[in-house]
Write a structure and sequence with these properties.
There is one protein chain. By secondary structure, this protein is mainly alpha-helical. The protein has 5 helices and 2 strands. A two-stranded parallel sheet has the order 1-2. The longest helix is centred in the C-terminal third of the chain and has 19 residues. The chain is globular, with a radius of gyration of 14 Å.
């Protein structure tokens, strides 16, 4: 994702769509540079588990978790999560 963000710059909106199942996954995608994360499958699981009430429940869970994870990385909003450095000694460098 960082290489894509670097190559695209501000020419396009970057969407992350692969295996997003939680607010933590959304926070990771934002921290890696995505503008948004798509989580369609999670909402389908919500429908399967709770019927018509499922998608609303899933969005509540994901939003709460996104806010908690954002706070843990020092971001006060999802937009600020895009500015967090995500490097550690074993990280790949792009």
């Amino acid at each position: 994702m960082p290489a894509i963000v670097k190559a695209v710059g501000s020419k396009a909106t970057i969407l992350f769509d692969s295996g997003v199942r939680s607010g933590t996954d959304v926070a990771r995608a934002l921290a890696l540079g995505a503008h948004a994360a798509l989580a369609g499958k999670a909402f389908l699981w919500g429908i399967g588990a709770l019927g018509a009430d499922g998608p609303g429940h899933v969005i509540d869970l994901m939003t709460d978790e996104l806010h908690r994870r954002s706070a843990r990385i020092g971001a006060h909003s999802p937009a600020e999560a895009r500015n967090v450095r995500v490097r550690h000694p074993g990280a790949l460098h792009f």
